[in-house]
Amino acid sequence: MKLVIYETETWIDLTPISYIRPVFELKCGMYTLIERIINTIKIKDTGLYVRDYLCDLVRSRYPYPVNDPSFLQDDLLIIDGRCLVDSDFSFTPEREAAWFFDNELAYAFIKKENVLKHSENGFKSILDFAVGLPRIETKTKIMHFPWNFVLENSEMLKKDFISKGKKGIEGKFSNQAVIHGENDVFIAEGADVHPLAVLDTNSGPVFIDKDVKIFPFARIEGPCYIGEGTQIMPGASIREGNTIGPFCRVGGELEESVIQGYSNKYHDGFVGHAYIGEFVNLGALTTNSDLKNDYSTVSVYVNGKPVDTGSLKVGSIIGDHTKTSIGTLFNTGTSVGVMCNITAGGILPKFFPSFVWYVNNKFMKGFGLGEMIKTAKAAMGRRGKTLSQEEENVIRKVFEITAEIRKTYVTKSFRAK
Question: Which of 143, 175, 293, 332 is at a distance of 20 to 30 A from 287, taking alpha carbons?
């Protein structure tokens, strides 16, 4: 039996955080979705199917076949890369069936003879066949929108801490630091918790990965995962439900948020119920609202159109390589695209197309894609990373994909009096 992890055209509903990565690289709890799938299902022979412009990038990151028709030559378990797989996942390989969540195909088991019959017409033909198989409802959730990752994060952190099976202190923990609550803490080798830091486990566990530094007067409330090489600044208030890192710098107040990695929220300011991509830099006092004054449900722009989240608390969704100035104040449920540069001023809009500058309350083109890529290379270099040619090619493709909506916003902005 072989495993195929795939994405469909629904990736667009997870923008802006899915523009420059496959959907299965998004993170909830301690793991990305692909890590969850592979760690739980444990089928060694794995293949990936992604949108065309990501093929070379995904091939450079994984040892698996990508969009390879020759891989489709056996019994298949196919699973949507948006699935939030945990220990509750189950399937029966004895008979062909399709498992659905919210009336949408989550995964399916297909026998070899039917795989071969339909693979000649491409993987889409296999998907179409799977939808018609005997139907079973599953509790394995599909992450339809970016805020789903935030809303599920606390519960997944608790489950992941149990599945890790690790407790105790392997790194440094000052005798003047405090664990308040149950001893549901793991501090990995190389981590350093400074004096007067507080780890509060009354609401959930705290997992501190290797080479993390927790500076004095920081308070970290569980459930929380702090990824490798991350630094929590002096006086930071890391409230419940956060996944941070790897290699982030976080200060101020953070609540129920996911920071994909390599991003900075170094200074004071509140960020809550947010999903922040990689190599994002939030200037001092950057703050988002995550609750409306009338306590009604929050709407978020998805691919340029508002969608009601059905939730009272949703913060910002911020794409990779975006930067904000000091004092930037985001409205409730703001969506910010890839490689934006946003300066403070007045009441900010709730949607920023990718690759825009927002200056003096106007959308602008900025200095062009070349300068944006140059800035990205500089930011990555500060974390010891380089922008690969595959990554640059993807960024350039996303620039093309988002050109029309960006042009619309820039044009309207300069026509406005």
Answer: 143
pLDDT digits (tens, 9 = 90+) for 337-392: 999 999 998 889 999 999 999 999 999 999 999 999 999 999 999 999 999 999 99
Residues 318 and 335: their CA atoms lie apart, in Å, by 6
Q: What is the DSSP letter of 297?
A: P
Catalogue the long-range contacts made by 243-246 (C-beta closer than 8 Å, 24 or more residues apart): 243/27, 243/28, 243/29, 243/30, 243/153, 243/157, 245/209, 245/212, 246/209
- CATH 2.160.10.10 positions along the chain are 148-415
Q: Does 2-144 carry CATH code 3.90.550.10?
A: yes
User: Which portions of the chain are predicted below pLDDT 50?
Assistant: none
Look up the CATH superfamily of 148-415.
Answer: Hexapeptide repeat proteins (2.160.10.10)
Q: Indicate the pTM of the whole model.
A: 0.96
